[in-house]
């Protein structure tokens, strides 16, 4: 049974080095130093700017857009002025009239320029197998080289053995071992469960990204155990794939469930809760499988000992021979 980690002292998310005095009473949501979601007024202003820009790019007058979209000229003027409380149906009409995807009106501010737009459209035309090849080429050319990087990241859902194997792998590679969730807890001064309760999925994912960036900057050589859901955040997952040699650890749902059971988790103490937990593991596995498959390599840990898995992973790593401590290499040679 793994010992529960001691709770770190609460710390302000807005000012990381400064400790909070009210360690046991986290500040309310408004005090968190995380990017705030857009207000309704900001969304209206963004929509107004996007509509005006799209109309100008197409050389359309406001009257022409009103006629082609079926929206009254007066109402369209309010939309372009940021005061029109537009419905989803009318927004869809505007998208059709301007020949734009609906999401483009409310997406975050675009700063990538025309190159990004053309590349994106090119990628949309490619077959799935071609996209996989393009992704590999891009990561090899512009990301961290698998042959050169000494950062290894373990991904996979809960119960697959990331913490246990990560620590052992790090020891055999002579590298520090870092659990991303522990870094997040230190950053927030709160347990992961409290972060979700107080700041939700958005707050946790922002902290996750911030901590991952710091690991990359400060740890040229490391074995990292990630949270299972990191693959659901496209920008963070891309950063992980570009900066680490990633290994997807997987196992049969029943095996993962038994490992979670061995931790005597109170959340699955009753038969009904255990049944729900097993169903949740299987459902999560299927939902994330296509994302985990983007890892550089994968390994099924079912029916294998920790030592067997560690040896197999060391053989898979492009950095293993160069990074293993000399004593380990010498001992293997004797065997």
Give me the secondary-structure category: alpha/beta
How does the overall form come out from the CA principal axes? elongated
Mean pLDDT: 78
Secondary structure tally, helices: 15
* SSE string, helices as H and strands as E: HHHHHHEHEHHEHEHHEHHH
C-alpha Rg (nearest Å)? 25 Å
The termini sit apart by 32 Å
CATH names the topology of the domain at 143-176 and 219-334 as Rossmann fold
Segments where pLDDT lies below 50 for 5+ residues? 1-5, 12-32, 320-324, 326-335
What is the correct CATH architecture of the domain at 143-176 and 219-334?
Answer: 3-Layer(aba) Sandwich
**What proportion of the residues form beta strands (DSSP E)?**
5-15%
CATH class membership of the domain at 143-176 and 219-334? Alpha Beta
CATH superfamily caption of the domain at 143-176 and 219-334: P-loop containing nucleotide triphosphate hydrolases
Helix content: 55-70%
Strand elements, count: 5
Biggest beta-sheet profile: 5 strands, parallel
The main sheet orders its strands as 2-3-1-4-5
């Amino acid at each position: 049974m793994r010992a529960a980690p001691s709770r770190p002292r609460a710390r302000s998310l807005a000012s990381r080095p400064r400790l909070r005095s009210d360690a046991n009473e986290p500040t309310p949501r408004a005090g968190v130093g995380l990017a705030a979601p857009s207000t309704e007024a900001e969304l209206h202003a963004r929509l107004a700017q996007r509509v005006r820009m799209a109309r100008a790019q197409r050389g359309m007058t406001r009257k022409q857009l009103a006629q082609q979209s079926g929206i009254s000229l007066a109402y369209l003027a309010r939309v372009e002025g940021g005061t029109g409380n537009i419905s989803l149906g009318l927004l869809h009409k505007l998208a059709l009239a301007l020949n734009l995807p609906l999401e483009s009106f409310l997406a975050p501010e675009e700063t990538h320029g025309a190159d990004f737009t053309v590349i994106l459209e090119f990628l949309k035309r490619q077959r799935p197998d071609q996209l996989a090849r393009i992704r590999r080429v891009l990561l090899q050319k512009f990301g961290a080289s698998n042959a050169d990087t000494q950062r290894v990241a373990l991904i996979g859902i809960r119960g697959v053995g990331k913490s246990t194997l990560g620590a052992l792998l790090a020891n055999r590679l002579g590298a520090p071992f870092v659990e991303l969730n522990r870094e997040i807890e230190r950053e927030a001064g709160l347990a992961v469960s409290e972060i979700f309760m107080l700041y939700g999925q958005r707050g946790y994912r922002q902290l996750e990204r911030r901590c991952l960036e710091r690991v990359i900057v400060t740890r040229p050589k490391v074995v990292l155990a990630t949270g299972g859901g990191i693959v659901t955040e496209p920008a963070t997952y891309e950063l992980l794939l570009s900066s680490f040699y990633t290994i997807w650890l997987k196992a049969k749902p029943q095996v993962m469930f038994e490992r979670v059971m061995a931790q005597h988790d109170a959340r699955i103490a009753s038969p009904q809760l255990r049944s729900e937990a097993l169903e949740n593991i299987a459902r999560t596995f299927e939902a994330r499988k296509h994302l985990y498959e983007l890892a550089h390599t994968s390994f099924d840990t079912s029916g294998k000992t920790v030592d067997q898995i560690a040896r197999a992973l060391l053989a898979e790593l492009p950095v293993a021979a160069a990074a293993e401590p000399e004593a380990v290499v010498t001992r293997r040679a004797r065997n």
